[in-house]
Amino acid sequence: MTDTQTPTTPASLTGIRVVDLTRVLGGPYCTQILADHGAEVLKIEPPAGDETRGWGPPFIGDTAAYFMGVNRNKKGLVADLSTQSGQLFLRELLSQADVLIENFKPGTLEKWGLGKDALQEAFPHLIHCCISGFGADGPLGGLPGYDACAQALCGLMSVNGEKSGEPTRVGLPVVDMVTGLNAAIAVLLALNERRSSGLGQYLDISLFDCAVSLLHPHAPNYFANGKVPGLTGNAHPNIAPYESFPTASGELFLAVGNNRQFATLCSVLKRPDIAQDPRFIDNAQRLGHRQLLHETLCDALAAHQAAELADVLMKAGVPASPVNNVAQLLAHPHTSHRNMVVEQGSYRAINTPIKLSRTPAQFRSPPPGFGEHNQEYGIN
């Protein structure tokens, strides 16, 4: 999707209609994936709007950049679903829709007579995806869920942070976004199954489950040895050297996964003796002497420039990278080469990473204004 591309061929989800009742991030991230690939996504906001429209500064016009990042290619409608007329309108839409995606607090749709059982009876073809914090039942069932709280509750914070510091939230809403990805996968699985059965189904996607699913390799390690994982900073719990190192200019991250790569690293640094040291001869020994290895490599890297050395190492087969900030990443020539920034007029955002050869993602419209398409869909 660039400012020169227009939708001239069917996309992979052309003909699929999605009613989007989600707000904030997990749900909108899911529906933007579907919209990018051709689904007609009707984003229905309450009269107060999706709260992320106000999550700024920064703002683009009157709308927060946060909202703009996850709502392109959608039609924007406003309806009060707590009223009888709003519920009637929703039922009319669902009669012609393939997918409903919502992230209401469990019990809200039931209060309106639109719970999962009622929807399945009225619209047997409908795929109903519910995104919630914890699911509808169980010890935490029905409680609201938020990304940072899920990170704390589900152990992600306990393994994120410097060894000498405190548990730290991952610096982006990883649980919300992975929940959105899993929701999109679930919708596509259900659409595929419906081709043979002709029936929709209920998809139960929770932040809690998705956060727990991210605990690799920490959960497998705990299952194997019974040791509670802790903070290791940038260091990997199973591999060394696999962390960041200071250089004369910036931080360098090394992700050395095998002995061959380690030997090549030491050769590039003109320190083959490090690879031959019995304390560093294989990964088990390197893990056992992690601190000494870190100090030894810090000395060897001290005179190098992070970006230049990373380029040499990568070309030699050693995974390495300078630690870039957001501006450096967005200006990187490979970001441009991979078409990872979509630009259309004044709209600029991260592009989809999902690249299909015959039915690529298409830019059709920027994020909708509040209630922009009400008249088109018969809302006064």
Automatic annotation (TrEMBL):
UniProt key word Transferase: yes
Do you know which InterPro entries this protein is assigned to?
Answer: CoA-transferase_III_domain, CoA-Trfase_fam_III, CoA-Trfase_III_dom3_sf, CoA-Trfase_III_dom_1_sf
Q: Which UniProt keywords apply?
A: Transferase
Write down what this protein is called.
Putative acyl-CoA transferase family 3
Q: Name one Pfam family in it.
A: CoA_transf_3
Q: Which GO terms describe its molecular function?
A: CoA-transferase activity
Q: Which SUPFAM superfamilies match?
A: CoA-transferase family III (CaiB/BaiF)
Positions of the UniProt region annotated as Disordered: 358-380
